[in-house]
Amino acid sequence: MSKIKASLTERRYLVTFAFVTSLFMLWGIAHAMSDVLNKHFQNVLQVSKAQSGLIQLSVFGAYAIMSIPAGLFMKRFGYKAGVLFGLALFASGTFLFVPAANAESFGMFRLALFILGCGMATLETVAHPFAAALGSQETSDQRLNLSQSFNAVGTIIGPAIGSYFLLRASGNEGNDLGSVKSLYVSIGIAISVVAVLFSFIQVPNLEVAHHGTESDTMEEETPLWKQKHFIWAVVAQFFNVAAQAGTWSFFINYGHDVMGFSDEQAANYMIVFMAMMALGRFVGTFLMKFIAPNKLLGIFATGSIIACLVVAQAWGWISYSALMMINFFFSIMFPTIFSLGLKSLGKHTQQGASFISMGVVGGAFFPLLMGLVANQNVAQAYYLPIICYLVIAVFAFRLYKIKK
Questions:
Q1: What pLDDT score does 218 carry?
Q2: CA-to-CA distance for 150 and 152, rounded, in angstroms?
Q3: Which of 57, 62, 347, 348 has the fewest CB atoms within 10 Å, i.e. is most exposed?
Q4: Where are the transmembrane segments (predicted)?
């Protein structure tokens, strides 16, 4: 008898799934805009490329501190309370841009970004297992990749907003922090509205939705630290976000230094760059119907390695096109690693999600390393992410397996 294929989600989960997916878009906007802030603060606050990498340290460093508390909060109070808590922190961070802009202080901006990062860390910790729980575990990879597709849409919107309100403003008006203040206050208001709307959503009871498969009994009794596929997922996620943060942070610098674009032109190309990630996620979600998620992850990691080698050569449009392709290949990595790591964790799923989210701290340090190289040659800085993609490829082809 042929097995009936599980659907992406169930009708009773549709409204909740749509709202959870919108959260992916929100933090996608914020992450992409922080990469525009890199260049804006280089111009306005006169910081170096390496110093501007401290923006990512502030945002991604928050994941190291907040992911575990967020997981414990979610376990104690549930998915809905976790989302509302994350949105409250997110909005608070955006409103702190007002005193930071008034003081013209890079340190205060980093504090605001840290609080904002705590909100994003909470949302990511909650939203990934939340989305995974909204249907069969068999289709959790597809569900997370679909949600992350809208995260990619957010990363397209982010550079478009940042280019228009920040780099355009700094180009026309000199040292302008008023545009930063106004922009982030507007984002804070929008996030507050989302929080109010989400508070009225009736979330179904999901305690059993992701945990209850017949083969989970042994995994539920096995401590997380003994589940090797989960441990390697945390490691792979660390290197994955390290590569992402470094690649994104210096995309505008690459356009300016290697291609000779103005800052605004380079930021506009970043919209295309992020559109490649959105395309990759939609394509990846489709391909997973025919190709095992781990195999597709390994293929995309190999593509990223080849693309990085070409980017580092600074061959004009050939290398710039390869830089665009890195984001296409990166597209499925975060959600697929996340989903593979959560497989068969049973009652440990929520705690496991917090540890995989904490792996995002890789993005806190890698831009600093790439920045040190980029100060001398931004193209050669793209040799460094190759190390990250090699780790991901090994995870995809060998280390993803659940040991029973």
A1: 47
A2: 5
A3: 347
A4: 12-33, 53-74, 81-101, 107-127, 148-167, 182-201, 230-254, 266-284, 296-318, 324-342, 354-374, 380-400
